[in-house]
Design brief:
Radius of gyration: 22 Å
Strand order of the largest sheet: 1-28-27-26
Distance between the termini: 80 Å
Structural class: mainly beta
CATH architecture of the largest domain: 7 Propeller
Number of domains: 2
Number of helices: 1
CATH topology of the largest domain: Methylamine Dehydrogenase, Chain H
Helix content: under 10%
Shape: globular
């Protein structure tokens, strides 16, 4: 009897552990009060900062540290009020904010406004916004370009743009949310209230309807580049970007009004969806809701591995932070990049050149950049997709002063940074 009881206790303990391991749970960790109508939200790829727009007058943008939740407030009212959508460049150097008529670039190192671009038509309304994976272009739905049509506008992300390109979209709906596939070739654009969401090829300007929906709101592209999550009204759908059809209806919210209120982890395992009255945690392994919070919000962002997600609430001026409580479950997302390494450059210090070597475990889009001590980008060494294996890049110090610099390699959502010393 003793052994049987001991075994029963063991099985109960094992079952409890297995259950907690299989079904990770999140809980409210803290509430950040900004005092404004927090609306849009985006997170840096290194998970160190969130950028929040405050849809108010005077307009402002908050840069919030995810370490201590300290807030740096940036006043943009001299350009325009009521900022809404926000996106961050994959190299984490700039945040791009949309107001009613302007796109504003904010330097995340100096916390200063770099430039702003006014949409061509005074009647334009800008909501969703995204940045291409190479950090070169900003893409957003333009609701009335030239006051006569709708479409997707593309502008230069690196310097103050004087012009832009435009892809016209014929729709009865109002273009609002946007997400880019991981290679940046396609934009998934939702159509508020009426009309099918669109799959837009940014290379050849081809526009395809995603069938089975009549009106769409929130959108997020999965990192596999072949699927997206889209809110069809209040129903969350999983969509194939190959066939442009719904493959699974996952769940529904009581009421949904936001345009980009879905966040997906970098391994495509979890999604966080937010509506006016509840929040959903979804496992994409079997497309099921594993946790529901009764309080709602406006928009959402999550850390790359899903350990935390952040929800803005425009009604009470807060950002709610939810933290995963489970232990031992995918806590170290770096396992997915086993074999990834950034080797120390040689020689270092150097003059006039040095070689930087790195190892990729699989094919990946690469960004390798050099910054000075003030955080100013001084050059881009690599910018494009590369095959798995070892790579070497030669860096020449010509045109740069003596001193300490940093170079930063980004492969997908993984980042490594090391020091350079130029000594002439």
């Amino acid at each position: 009897m003793y052994n049987l009881k001991k075994m029963s206790n063991f099985l109960l303990l094992y079952f409890s552990f297995a259950t907690s391991s299989l079904f990770a749970q999140w809980s409210l960790d803290t509430v950040i009060t900004t005092g404004d109508a927090t609306t849009g939200i985006a997170i840096t790829s290194d998970n160190s900062k969130i950028v929040v727009t405050n849809n108010t007058s005077p307009g402002s943008v908050d840069i919030i540290s995810t370490t201590d939740y300290s807030i740096t407030k940036i006043d943009i009212s001299s350009i325009e009020n009521y900022p809404n959508g926000v996106a961050i460049s994959p190299d984490d150097s700039l945040a791009f904010v949309n107001t009613t008529h302007n796109t504003i670039a904010i330097n995340l190192f100096t916390h200063s406004v770099m430039w702003h671009y006014q949409a061509p038509c005074a009647g334009t309304t800008l909501y969703g916004i995204a940045v291409t994976p190479n950090s070169q272009s900003v893409v957003y739905p333009d609701l009335s370009s030239g006051c006569t049509q709708q479409g997707v506008r593309i502008i230069n992300a690196k310097e103050s743009p004087s012009n832009s390109s435009f892809i016209s979209v014929n729709t009865s709906g109002v273009l609002c949310g946007i997400a880019l596939t991981s290679y940046g070739n396609s934009a998934i654009v939702t159509t508020y209230s009426l009309g099918s969401p669109k799959n837009i090829n940014l290379l050849n300007s081809q526009v395809q309807n995603i069938s089975g929906m009549n009106g769409s709101y929130g959108v997020a592209a999965l990192h596999n580049s072949s699927e997206a999550l889209i809110f069809d009204g209040d129903s969350l759908d999983r969509v194939s970007l190959t066939s442009n059809t719904i493959t699974k209806k996952i769940s529904a919210l009581s009421y949904n009004t936001s345009f980009q209120n879905i966040a997906v982890t970098s391994d495509d395992k979890y999604a966080f969806a937010v509506g006016a009255f509840e929040k959903l945690v979804i496992t994409l392994k079997d497309d099921s809701v594993i946790q529901t919070f009764t309080a709602g919000g406006t928009n959402v962002a999550c850390t790359s591995e899903g350990s935390r997600f952040f929800v803005t609430d425009s009604y009470n001026g807060t950002v709610r932070v939810y933290k995963r409580n489970a232990t031992g479950i995918e806590q170290n997302n770096n396992l997915a990049m086993k074999g990834f390494s950034l080797e120390q450059n040689f020689p270092n210090p150097f003059n006039p050149s040095t070689e930087i070597s790195y190892q990729l475990p699989f094919n990946s889009f690469i960004i390798l950049k050099v910054y000075d001590l003030l955080g100013k980008e001084v050059c881009t060494l690599v910018n494009g997709p590369q095959n798995a294996g070892k790579h070497t890049v030669k860096f020449n110090a010509e045109g740069l002063s003596n001193g300490v610099y940093f170079y930063r390699l980004q492969a997908g959502n993984f980042i490594s940074t090391k020091k350079l010393i130029i000594l002439k």
